[in-house]
């Protein structure tokens, strides 16, 4: 099945925002996986959020620091300032979140802003994108996954890509956070410096013998979705896509 078969049906849905647990599980190279089933978090709506920040030094240089601050603490010269990326004037990067899905019955496709494939929460693929944030606002972009239909889901690959502008993963501090309906949130930071990469496979959710697990991937590639497809053996057909103007 080609990826465009997952066209958004336009169903109106009220989302569950997930738990407000204050603690978090960080997936790293040393601890790359967690079981949602063992955490008791494999039901309800799983919220997957993408947010990012940019270093001010990437745009204005270290000369923006005040002299008084440097005299009090000269080591700040070597510590880049971090600001929230929320305006197009500061952030010339458009990060998007997407999700490749494979159902138990063999159905495959993609949910992403590009092409307007926003998915559906109540029918296959049980994955829905809430919107397209083009400027890195604090709320970021969010994908919802209906885990009440987990028995129909084989695997989900959540990825991030730069739709337009120059590659800037090396200047972008992106984070993907999962908010289960129960238990602590799960965080994955994209801290590797992949200057020329345009896409990154962030995490893989798999249903193995009834157990739902989340595994950190963080694999950068120089191409787009087709290259991620080849890397994980999805076997979809890809073509050039565009966003609609806002």
Automatic annotation (TrEMBL):
InterPro entries linked to this entry: TerD
Domain of life: Bacteria
Name of this protein: Tellurium resistance
